[in-house]
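Sequence and structure are kept together here, with a separate record for every protein. An example record follows, reproduced without changes.
>
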Amino acid sequence: MEEVIIKDKEKYLQENYPFLDVPKLTDKKRCLHCDEIITVGDYKVYRDENNMEFIYCTNAPECNGTLIDWWPID
């Protein structure tokens, strides 16, 4: 996998977030893979061997959690 540098993270998130209610870049979430509290705007994007891009945890590549693994903080 190759990291993709995103210059406009707000626009990228708006255009590529697959669920309703796109979070704000300043929102905090808990990544279920690394159990860390992350700031949404610190996300990383990686491209796989099929040129598919995925939004990953801020702790990637050590953490393989993607946005589906981000949960609200209680």
Observations:
- The radius of gyration is 12 Å.
- Residues 9-16 form the longest helix (8 residues).
- The chain has a mean pLDDT of 95.
